[in-house]
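Title: Prediction job returns without error message
Component: structure pipeline
Severity: low
Priority: P3
Assignee: unassigned

Description:
Job completed but the reporter wants confirmation the result is attached to the right record. Sequence as submitted:
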Amino acid sequence: MEANARWVALTAVAPVAWGANYFVTHEFLPAGHPLYGAALRALPAGLVLLAFCRQRPHGAWWGRSAVLGLLNVSVFFVLVFAASQLLPTSVASTVMAVSPLAMMLAARFLVSERPGAAHLGGAVIGLGGVCLMLIGGAGGISVPGVLASAAAVLVSSFGHILAKRWNTGAAGAGVLASTAWQLTAGGLLLLPVAVAVEGAPPAVSPSAFLAFCYVSLVATALAFAAWFAGLARLPAGTVGLIGLLNPVTGVLLGTAVAGEVLTGRQLCGLALVLAGVALGRPRGRAGVPGPIGARGHPASQAGWGVRSRWW
């Protein structure tokens, strides 16, 4: 149980960072440049993790890194950037709250994880809590923004469970390495497309530079490493429910930064979300048995798989 609690706490770092990321992107990053925004989020994060883990892809991981980079980074980041610019934080978070159900469905087919009644119940309760907190908030609805947010849910759910499948067992590469590779690959795929489509890079003010530092280092490098580490050790349903902390963070951030007052309805919704997360927490031993990292490396038993050698 203690091990489960540690993995749940580590995984929760990701949705908390992503919840703040909607606000940072909407308020501080230059609008109208989703491709550059996504590339400048992914590539620095990938290079930082690459310098830390000091591994290059091997064997099938060259192709896997490209596929995961395309799904989890290139396409997903562009869609999230567009949704963050087109929608109020509350609306974007509400659409993304269906991701636990999408992840459970993807896990059922890709890694043969059948969601239990507790996971399904937690997802429904949590989604209801998110809607109670956020629906009816200020701001208009952009149909392209909603479509971008919904597409981001589908792409990321498939890509995250595919990463879980490929990174489980002796053929796994370790969480830090595989995260570094897909972020770097996704950023490299985005950069020439951004130059061709959007032309010169946008001007970056000091506040935008600091925002990019947060988006890349905290909401990407740290958050994705924590998220995939959780996926390696916890059931996909549990990880998806932990993701509901994303909209909770958005509401609490609005209260802390914008001086908004939490209403009774929002407090009830917050309680439902936390109840949904608690309902889906794993019982007994930590999630996925067997080695997670590459070639039985001892560090991989913790789900990280860091090697201490250069290329």
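Comment from assignee: result matches the submitted record. The two ends are 38 Å apart (CA to CA).
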